[in-house]
Specification:
alpha+beta, two-stranded antiparallel sheet, elongated
Length: 54
């Protein structure tokens, strides 16, 4: 049986957390030790999100 209510995708949660400037919610979307590759730069998720939210 399929759920009867829509689910929120990780992308939707990422966009909502970004728009709300909610760093804790953003970090919750990543596994511990996750890496982010953005604009050819590889860094830890925590480091990259800290820079982005500064």
């Amino acid at each position: 049986m399929f759920p009867t209510r829509p689910t929120t995708t990780p992308v939707q949660r990422f966009v909502a957390a970004t728009n709300a400037h909610d760093g804790d919610a953003l970090l919750a979307l990543f596994a511990p030790g996750a890496t982010v590759i953005d604009d050819g730069t590889t860094s830890s998720a925590i480091t990259r999100l800290s820079i982005a939210l500064a």
